[in-house]
Amino acid sequence: MKSSKLVSHPVFGEGEIVDSRWQGSELLVRFQTGLRLWLPRNRVRFLFEFDGDLLESATASVAAIDRVSACRMIEAFRLGIVPHQDVEHFTFGREQEVKVVEDALRNLARNRSDVYMLEGEYGSGKTHLLEYCLHRALQEGMAASLIQFDPVEVSPHRPKRVYRELVRNFRYIKDGMEQGYRDLLRAATQLNFHDHIFFGPVLNKLRRLDAGSPESEVFWQWIEGESTKEYAVEMPTASRVRGAQGIPALYDFSTAADFYCHIITGISCIARELGLKGLVLLIDEAETVTRLWDVVYLTKSVNFMDGLVRCAQNDPELKVVNERLIHNQVRPVPYIYRDPALLIIFATTPTPGEYGYIRLTNAVRHRIALTPLEDQALADAFATMVRIYERAYPGFKLPIEEQKHLLSRAARQSSNGVRAFIKFCVEALDIARLQQQGVLPQLVANR
Amino acid sequence: MDRELARAIINKLGSTGTPPEFGIEAFTVGLDRLLQVVEDEYLNGILKYNLSSFKLVTGNYGGGKTHFLYAVRNRAFKHNYCVAYVSLSPTECPFDKLELVYKMVALNLTAPQDTSRLATLTDKGIDAVIRQWAANWRSKEDNPERLQDYLLQLPVPDSTSFFNAVKGAFSALLAEDIDGFTEAVQWLKGEEISREARARFKISERIDKSTAFRMLRSLIQWVHTIGFRGVVLLFDEAERGVSISSSRDRRRALDNLRQLVDECGNSRLPGAMFFYAVPDENLLLEGSGPVYEALKQRLRSGFSEANPVGVRINLEELGIEPVPFLEELGKRLVDLFETAYGTKINGVERSLKLLAETAVKGFVLDVSYRRLFVVAAVEFLHQARANPGMVLTERDAEKLLRVTTQRLDRSEQEKVEREEF
To answer: Per-residue pLDDT for chain B (421 aa), expressed as one digit of tens each?
Structure first.
């Protein structure tokens, strides 16, 4: 884009960037009033002049797409989201980031566990890239699970909920079919994991379990982290899991980080033994670690995240019960089981003043920072969006000159993030279509 | 229109100015374009493909949000959608407590019904939907084995417990086991049930804040699998402003909303459409911090124009100026009034126009000039019926509107005090 040094500030007006520091996070701006100020980068809005002619060299990447998929994508674009099933068809200008991810997946395939942190402002495309990682991991023959932290439903200070979410979203491809957690454990009954504190007895029980019995469903629900104690333990019903199982409970307390890290590393080992290339755990909204208002919860949350990071780094200190990390007091276990085949990618919005975030970022060695998209990537995305739109609404056509004009306007929105760019494009196309249909008056559009 | 129905509508409009649950089409003005687009693009469009959508509806107090939501509900019924209209409030149903929101959705879930007759929707609630589901099956299948096969083949929604509970309620109903049905429904409505009952139906989860979202998802998935096209959920923000009290609760509520929006962007809510109506989007979105920013990016519109398929539907931008809008509304009210009382009210057009102009000129910045006009217009029509040939002067119109404002304020205050203290 031309004139990328021009910025606008809500109070000081327009100005020009004359210097930067702290890796570009702060900019020295000379405003038209003569004022010179150092400002955080995110406090100014970049003013771009975009060349709409780039559209002529743009590549629309969606070759053949059915109408339902097109409609799904367009509706998600209206919300500024790319549907996860379509993410591979709609990724632009992230070649470098994708290469880092591909390298990480290749390393995992060579049994090198690791952890990465994907950082970017809201709307910069973090979730999108995580979805991309998920698809690539599944294609490469890995087991994968994408979970989104949430302060209420899936908070890191309650590791059991994280495990339950991991289980729910757990996927891998075998013989061209998508398989889930139950499939993995059924296959694992052929393996020897007697030394795993949880999977040892669980697999043992599964080997003996009659798949059709009422007890079976209850047991599976229990394995998956649902609470079944009401009818599985105390009630004398047909579905009761009878007798002592010798299986440790799936603890619901927040100090059980060791237990769940042990299980997660165990899952990665099972995956590897079954011929998969390891486990890829993708954690979105990882900054949730900082959003806990209770300091005790925050500490436990940070501890679990620390444990996860060091598990993925295969830290030898975590292969024994380690006093420097929090362990559950019922049955302390090492955080790491054997040599895990685990790749973790956290996606976060930088929150540099927060303790939890600082702890997390200090622990992770590899960082991927999402920067604004290049011009050609925006043009490619726009061309693709127009093609999808035409597929979703057969009969709709927008002349190329109008497309160029629209792209130039939309590109100015991109300084507010990719999400704003996508929303602007799709809304502009909506308005153009509704005008063509006579639903909206022409004068509305030309404002 | 039926005289009784017309009279009921006039009574409701004349007392509070809030729309009745029935016969709303008789006095709908300016919403046709929006409703038609909602119908064509969503109810009869992408929701058919098992996709989902979220819309933020904004409109001033008394600006027609509830009216719009009821009109959407009626169109949704015509296309075989279940609908739940939920009025959010700080005490009973705040959005930061999703478990309470789920409960209200379960309580208000309504299978398609005729809304043009004089009745409030009585067959509400998840129990009524299950009853209808069972009745449909009973009428076409009485072989227990085949019914069992049908239940086995139903896709399991996100929560197995939810699925077990609806299956349990369905089976209990077919077996005429009323106690069993009641117990299963009690859990589905978010109430506590005995441990024995949970064991019986294999319900392993509780409906609390950590599972509420999953239950909501499961409810939507289940409704879709039992033969309805989907679910339309109408969240109406309480008139007194944001239904959330503290800033911490507010952040939670917004985070819930953000999660809901993201779910709509993906495909885990088949055939679901959400409408969230607020008086002013700024009350909802103006704030700092990650939660606000995340939601703002999703819900803000890039254009100021009224785009009926955009994520924000602004009822203040209907493409019709306030005075012509009220004039048209006045004409509809006259028709209704004449039907209701079997009489002809002549020569009131000029008075109603004056009332409309005065309402817009003097009260457009006040809360709910539209509602004010409706109540005052009904009052005037009563007077005109008693005194044929009566004509309003500008001063009369102002006085009528002022007295109506005071009356509405008083009743609003009483309502607030009744609910909150």
So the answer is: 778 888 888 888 888 778 888 888 888 888 888 899 999 999 999 999 999 999 999 887 767 888 999 999 999 999 999 999 998 876 666 777 888 899 999 999 999 988 776 665 568 899 999 999 998 888 877 787 888 888 888 888 888 889 999 999 999 998 899 999 999 999 999 998 988 888 888 888 888 877 888 899 999 999 999 999 999 999 987 544 445 556 667 777 787 888 888 888 776 789 999 999 988 777 777 766 667 777 888 888 767 667 888 888 888 777 788 888 888 888 888 888 888 888 887 778 888 888 888 888 776 555 577 888 888 888 888 888 888 877 778 888 888 888 888 887 777 677 666 655 5
Report the half-sphere exposure of A374 (CA within 13 A, side-chain side): 11
- From B214, B262, B308, residue closest to A81, measured CB to CB: B262
* Phi, psi at A70, each rounded to 5°: -65, -45
**CB within 8 Å of chain A, chain B residues 158-177:** 158, 160-161
CB within 8 Å of B149: residues ≥ 6 apart: none
A234 touches chain B (CB under 8 A): yes
Nearest CA among B236, B211, B248 for reference residue B98: B211
Q: Is A150 on the interface with B (CB under 8 A)?
A: yes
Pairing of strands A279-284, A342-348: parallel
Say yes or no to pLDDT of A236 above 70: no
Residue A171's φ and ψ, nearest 5 degrees, are: -145, 150
Contact B248 A230 (CB under 8 A): no
Question: What amino acid occupies position A308?
Answer: L
| Element (DSSP H or E) covering residue B138 | helix B126-140
Restricting to B residues 322-361, those with a Cβ less than 8 Å away from any Cβ of A are none
Q: Quick one: residue B17, left, alpha or beta (phi over 0 = left, psi -120 to 50 = alpha)?
A: left
CB A159 within 8 A of CB A191: no
User: What is the least distance, in Å, from the CA of A423 to any CA of chain B?
Assistant: 7
Structure tokens at A96: 């470098």
A348 → chain B, closest CA residue: B290
Neighbours of A442 (CB within 10 A): 9
Q: Give residues 196 to 235 of B whose Cβ lies within 8 Å of A.
A: 196, 198-200, 202-206, 209-211, 213-214
Residue of B nearest to A293 (CA): B248
Query: Which residues in chain A are closer than 8 Å to B303, comparing Cβ atoms?
Result: 424, 427-428, 431
Closest residue in chain A to residue B98, using alpha carbons only: A152
From CA B204, how far away is CA B220, in angstroms rounded?
20
C-beta atoms of B252 and A152 within 8 A:
yes
* B223 dihedral zone (left: phi>0; alpha: psi -120 to 50; beta): alpha
Question: For A255-302, how does the pLDDT look when each residue is reduced to its tens digit (9 = 90+)?
Answer: 999 999 999 999 999 999 999 999 999 999 888 777 666 788 889 999
Using a CB-CB cut-off of 8 Å, the residues of chain A touching B257 are none
Q: Which A positions 190-219 lie with beta carbon below 8 A of chain B? A: 214, 217-218
Contact A78 B306 (CB under 8 A): no
Q: How far apart are CA A223 and CA A266, in angstroms?
A: 14
CA atoms within 13 A on the CB side of A309: 21
Q: Nearest CA to A273 among A175, A206, A340?
A: A340
Helices (H), ranges, B85-159: 98-108, 126-140, 144-153
Task: Find out whether A411 and B288 touch, Cβ atoms under 8 Å.
Answer: no
C-beta atoms surrounding A175 within 10 Å: 5
Q: Which residue type is seen at A4? A: S
Q: Please, which residues have CB within 8 angstroms of residue A3's CB and are 6 or more apart in sequence?
A: A47, A48, A49
**Chain A, chain B: beta-carbon pairs less than 8 Å apart:** 149
CB contact under 8 A, A123 and B297: yes
